[in-house]
Amino acid sequence: MRSFLKISVIIFAFFILFGCSEQKTVVILSSYDAKDVCGQPQVEGVTDALKKNVSDLKIEQIYFDSRRISKQEFEKRCDGFTKRVKSQKPSLILTTDDAAFQCVAKHFMGDKIPVVFSGINLTPEHYNTKYHFIEGRKPIKNFTGVYERIFVLRQMEMLEVFVGKIDKIAILYSTDSMGNILKEQIIYELKNKDFKDRIVLYPVGSIQELIKASEEINKRKDIVAYFPFVMSIKNEKILTISDIASIMTDKIKKIDLAINREFVQLGFFGGISVDFYQMGYRAGEMASYILKTGRISDLEVEDAEKFLRIINLKRARDINLKISEENLSLFDEVIG
Predict the structure, then answer these.
(1) Phi/psi of residue 98, each to 5°?
(2) I need a labelling partner for 299 at 20 to 30 A (CA). Which of 103, 203, 269, 288 fits?
């Protein structure tokens, strides 16, 4: 009997010490809402990678909805998030897009909690001038992640296949933070390239300005295509690109150069698309490695590398653009 009790105590102690691992917690902070065409595919990719690679993991998703709120409300939500994290002390924070990154960098740069970012549009080098978190691309603090390239040069090369030599391309962008960031990213990726001098800028901050700019782009014969970067504008309420995509596609009968699959599904023409899901998935893989090893310094900041060639055939027909079977075969995905 004593032997049995002794063995039972040993077995119980073994399970206490080795059979029960401490559950890890990851907080995913998304800049936008749970239906956002840019943010949500990243959240899904991150979540899938974490579930595949890390067992006994609690994942919490928090959304700032920054497109629809004021700067003051954003700061209030950021402060609330910060207090919550400092109280909960999660194992890792993962951010999607710039607004979430900026909040977390402001309050947790140099902290013990590791942070992985996905989908920032301002370059890591830009953020590094303020936070000094990388040397080259190697982390020297608690931040690493994936920078969102939007493959502008590939877009230009694809466009020339359809229309020949490009005259002018418009950037139709909202004057909010994200619209300006995307506009600057286009200019950055075209730096020192011939295409830079062919860009025409159309900033808009209201429905009326959007309609006027759209009509002008449509009339100008030298503009062969445009980037629809109107991410949010004010009307009676704040409208996002999902709400106003139809205004652009109705008013502009030219090639809309979309930056992801979700834009194409909104009715835009398409082109070279960053794969938002795969970008998030890669960030989730990086987070999984850190959770397992604790070694964030092993993981250099990366550029998103995976892209898709996507076309909306309905939109092509709508703008009277004929696509040969040979050119159609260049696309990975055909919609419509």
Answers:
(1) -70, -40
(2) 103
C-alpha to C-alpha distance for 65 and 97, rounded to whole angstroms: 12
Phi, psi of 193 (to 5 degrees): -115, 155
d(CA 299, CA 277): 20
Chain centre distance of CA 60:
19
In angstroms, the CA 66 to CA 14 distance is 48
Q: At which residue do the structure tokens 């418009």 appear? A: 170
Distance CA(147)–CA(162), nearest Å, equals 29
d(CA 4, CA 304): 59
Reported as type and span, the H/E element at residue 145 is strand 143-147
Mean pLDDT of 262-281: 92
Residue, of 67 and 252, whose pLDDT is higher:
252
Token couple for 262: 């979700």
Tell me if 228 sits within 8 A of 258, measured CB to CB.
yes
The 10s digit of each residue's pLDDT in 34-44 is 998 889 999 99
DSSP-assigned states of every residue in 255-299: EEB-SSHHHHHTT--EEEEE-HHHHHHHHHHHHHHHHHH--GGGS
